[in-house]
């Protein structure tokens, strides 16, 4: 039987991965821009996204999720994001 912690981890991986797939943004723009360059352009974009995303997934698996969900971190990211906008 699969451990509940493993199921929770896999669910969080799916949710994090969907952020790059569903939300229209830079990843979609790059995919559209690079698509005409060749038949494997989408695979390269996906691989690049995976390379960036895998360390985040590893950090969450190692317990860094508590830091990411802490109040000081979320406030800091919100202020930084707001300043950039």
Q: Any descriptors?
A:
4 helices, single chain, mainly alpha, flat, 85 residues
Walk me through the structure.
By secondary structure, this protein is mainly alpha-helical. 81% of the residues lie in helices and 0% in strands. The chain has helices at 4-21, 26-34, 41-68, 71-84. The chain is flat. The relative contact order is 0.08.
Average pLDDT over all residues: 83
Fraction of residues in β-strands:
under 5%
Outline the biggest β-sheet. none
Contiguous low-pLDDT stretches (5 residues minimum) are none
- Helices and strands, in order, run as HHHH
Overall form:
flat
Please provide a brief summary of the model:
With 85 residues, this protein is an all-alpha fold. It contains 4 helices and no strands. Helix 2 (26-34) packs antiparallel against helix 3 (41-68).
Secondary-structure topology with pairs:
Layout: H1 4-21, H2 26-34, H3 41-68, H4 71-84
Helix pairs in contact: 1-3, 2-3
């Amino acid at each position: 039987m699969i451990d509940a912690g493993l199921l929770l981890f896999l669910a969080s991986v799916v949710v994090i991965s969907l952020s790059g797939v569903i939300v229209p943004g830079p990843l979609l723009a790059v995919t559209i821009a690079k698509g005409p360059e060749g038949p494997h352009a989408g695979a390269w974009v996906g691989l690049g996204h995976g390379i960036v995303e895998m360390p985040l997934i590893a950090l969450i698996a190692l317990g860094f999720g508590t830091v990411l969900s802490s109040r000081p971190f979320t406030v800091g990211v919100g202020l930084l994001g707001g300043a950039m906008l």
